[in-house]
């Protein structure tokens, strides 16, 4: 079997999550890592036994590289993705697909024109708990889904932002807590709820990091979906630890609860454990989820088989639309309908 040639752009925090998986895959080979910091690129290239570079445009002229992983700061996603797709390279990008709604629209247009695939990393959809919850919803076993909520209480110290100048700024990160950390939970809420978003109300605040960042560290929202399903959301980076994400889904005849990535069924006053994930984190922060490898391998299967990847430009933009809907609702102090 010929191996699929891969490159990773960006040797920052998330880089190892991609490089490690590629290094372990039998049908893919990491051939190039790119970073503006030449020393950092060389260091990672030595670890993974590949070439190093500082200009991602060199990839455009490399026929031996078919898939490119974009792991750069948010504001660089859209222009890189568009160039790579135009050159016929398959792209797997870290979230968000872009840092503004306008840039996301441009990416979707580029993806529609390209013969190559674009995948967006929302790895928590591959968690055992998420898969089970989604299957329970689709089965209709507990009746109609009425409402759901998600809670994220994490911590980000000032150094998280001061050590990386692009973070904490509207121009380069596109926001704060919502677009960087809790976008994964918002993605799960909209994936579980199904249907279209009809209304978003909410607000963002900067509770503890106001002297460090210009964006939010805390947010809440009330999101109404078609079909009468309502989602409540709360997230913050102002806690003093990174707690597991908590989810609750209320059906007509039962309740599903996610705590510490385990899923419990609550019915008739009895609580039953339905899922205790067998996966364990391998060097990653456990609260990120441990399913990056599952998503990456699945993307490569789709590329090899010529099948459209299911978290594409359109699907990957849904959570971003929620993020910007909450920002707009907070600015206007009124409920809004997201425009994508």
Protein described:
This protein has 340 residues and is α/β, with parallel strands linked by helices. Helices cover 32% and strands 25% of the residues. The chain is built from ten helices and 14 strands. The model has no long low-confidence stretch (mean pLDDT 95).
Provide a compact summary of the structure.
It is built from 10 helices and 14 strands. It has 340 residues and is of the alpha/beta class.
- End-to-end distance: 41 Å
Q: CATH superfamily assignment of the largest domain?
A: Dihydrodipicolinate Reductase, domain 2
Quaternary organisation: single chain
CATH class of the largest domain: Alpha Beta
Major beta sheet summary: 8 strands, mixed
The averaged pLDDT comes out at 95
The string of secondary-structure elements, in order, is: EHEHEEHEHEHEHHHEEEEEEEHH
- According to CATH, the fold-level topology of the largest domain is Dihydrodipicolinate Reductase, domain 2
Named at the architecture level, the CATH assignment of the largest domain is: 2-Layer Sandwich
Radius of gyration: 20 Å
Q: Strands of the biggest beta sheet: in what spatial order?
A: 8-9-10-7-11-12-13-14
Shape: globular
- Secondary structure tally, helices: 10
How many independent structural domains?
2
β-sheet strand percentage? 25-35%
Counting DSSP E segments of at least 2 residues, the number of strands comes to 14
> Helical percent range?
25-40%
* Structural class by helix and strand composition: alpha/beta
Low-confidence stretches: none
């Amino acid at each position: 079997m010929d191996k699929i040639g891969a490159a990773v752009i960006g040797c920052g925090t998330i880089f190892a999550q991609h490089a490690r998986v590629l290094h372990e895959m039998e049908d893919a080979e990491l051939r190039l890592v790119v970073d503006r910091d030449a020393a950092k690129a060389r260091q990672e290239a030595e670890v993974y036994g590949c070439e190093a570079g500082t200009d991602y445009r060199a990839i455009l002229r490399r026929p031996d590289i078919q898939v490119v992983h974009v792991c750069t700061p948010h504001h660089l996603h859209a222009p890189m993705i568009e160039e790579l797709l135009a050159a016929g390279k398959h792209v797997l990008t870290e979230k968000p697909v872009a840092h503004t709604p306008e840039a996301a629209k441009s990416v979707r247009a580029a993806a529609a024109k390209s013969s190559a695939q674009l995948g967006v990393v929302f790895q928590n959809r591959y968690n055992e708990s998420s898969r089970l919850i989604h299957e329970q919803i689709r089965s209709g076993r507990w009746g109609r889904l009425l409402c759901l909520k998600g809670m994220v209480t994490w911590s980000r110290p000032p150094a998280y932002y001061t050590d990386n100048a692009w973070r904490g700024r509207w121009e380069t990160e596109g926001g704060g807590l919502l677009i960087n950390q809790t976008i994964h939970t918002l993605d799960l809420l909209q994936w579980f709820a199904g249907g279209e978003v009809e209304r978003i109300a909410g607000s963002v605040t900067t509770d503890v990091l106001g002297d460090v960042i210009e964006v939010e560290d805390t947010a809440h929202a009330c999101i109404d979906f078609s079909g009468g399903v309502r989602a409540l959301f709360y997230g913050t980076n102002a806690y003093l630890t990174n707690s597991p994400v908590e989810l609750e889904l209320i059906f007509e005849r039962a309740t599903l609860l996610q705590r510490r990535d385990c899923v419990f069924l609550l019915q008739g006053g009895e609580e039953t454990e339905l899922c205790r994930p067998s996966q364990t984190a391998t060097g990653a922060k456990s609260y990120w989820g441990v399913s990056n490898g599952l998503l990456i391998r699945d993307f490569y299967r789709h590329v090899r088989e010529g099948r459209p990847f299911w978290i594409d430009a359109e699907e990957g933009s849904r959570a971003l639309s929620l993020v910007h809907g909450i920002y707009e609702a907070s600015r206007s102090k009124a409920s809004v309908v997201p425009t994508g």
